[in-house]
Design a protein that fits this description.
By secondary structure, this protein is an alpha+beta fold. Helices cover 25% and strands 22% of the residues. The strands form two sheets. It has a ten-stranded antiparallel β-sheet, sandwiched between helices. Helix 1 packs across helix 4. It binds zinc ion (ZN).
């Protein structure tokens, strides 16, 4: 029987309808060769002059030269403007690109552990900078692959700093306040040693019972902290390793599937409470007419099956 579930963190209503799918490997994508750089990729090492001047890097070398492991540049086609642009009707903010690796095929599930830590550390520092500069909220995300919304194959994250708090972020804060407890810590404690667990340690990864898409994974640190940008190095590193592990497991089951990875953090002036975390959502189901018209998601792979499929 299909089952209606509510995700306490996202607030999403989900119908788990396993009868509609065959098996987890139904969603396995056929093997494909790693994308090769065409030489015109603006994010490949050696092509630094093809981007606007660099904002930050992790690694060696002078700005806008090779030697970096992670590189941050302004987005050439920003969806928000810079606060000093001045036009009263403009959407103030900042839109940055974090190039995850100098290698064209170096996506997060393929990077080594310490390289994944570099990536999360660079993103944390930029989120902190944007909030310190006066913006209200900073949303960091990775769109990996065309189905996930990426227009450039070279693995990269984006950070959008906003001078307002987006409704979904606001609503999540309200759910924490209304519950009067840390919803992420609660889920982590329940699921870390259950059959929904994907990785356990200082940071924990699990498939939420009300996953809105097959193989959705949440990753969070055991310590309670609302803001990603205020997390110390050890905490960021633990979440980076667990996120990389979660992606590697997804890749082992599904192949190099496209996915969105989003980093959820409290806004700058939020009420106390909240718990920063990472959500990985493989793009293997389509948000179609029913989902668009009702806001109710349909997931054909029970989260226990997804968690159990990982090697
Ligand atoms: Zn490239």
């Amino acid at each position: 029987m299909p089952e209606l579930r509510t995700d306490p963190i996202s607030g999403r209503l989900v119908i788990i309808a396993p009868e509609r799918a065959a098996r987890p490997d139904t969603f396995r994508v056929p093997p494909r060769p790693p994308p090769a750089s065409t030489g015109s990729c603006p994010f490949c090492a050696g092509n630094e002059s093809m981007t606007p001047p660099e904002i930050a890097r992790i690694g060696a070398g002078a700005p806008d030269t090779p030697g970096w492991r992670v590189r941050v540049v302004p987005n050439l086609y920003p969806i928000v403007g810079h606060p000093t642009d001045g036009a009263p009707e403009s959407v103030a903010g900042a839109h940055e690109v974090v190039v995850l690796s100098p290698e064209h095929a170096g996506h997060l599930g393929r990077l080594g552990e310490e390289r994944a830590v570099d990536v999360f550390t660079a993103i944390r520092d930029r989120v902190g900078h944007l909030l310190d500069s006066g913006l209200q909220h900073a949303q960091a995300f990775v769109n990996q692959g065309r189905a996930a919304g990426s227009s450039i194959d070279h693995p990269h994250a984006q950070i959008v700093g906003l001078d307002f708090v987006p409704p979904a972020v606001h609503a999540e804060q309200d759910r924490f306040l209304a519950a009067g407890r840390d919803l992420v810590a609660e889920a982590l404690a329940v699921h870390r040693s259950s059959d929904l667990s994907v990785a356990d340690g200082p940071a924990v990864a699990w498939c939420p019972p009300a996953s809105s898409s097959p193989f959705e994974i949440l990753v969070a640190h055991r310590s309670t902290r609302a803001r990603f940008d205020q997390a110390p190095d050890t905490e960021v590193a633990a979440v980076a390793r667990a996120s990389r592990e979660a992606l590697a497991r997804v890749n082992a089951v599904l192949g190099d599937v496209d996915y969105n990875l989003t980093i959820h953090t409290a806004p700058r002036d939020a009420e106390p409470g909240g718990h920063w975390y990472v959500r990985v959502a493989p793009r293997i189901s389509i948000v179609a007419g029913f989902e668009q018209s009702t806001g109710v998601f349909v997931n054909v792979v029970p989260p226990k099956v997804a968690a159990g499929a990982a090697p």
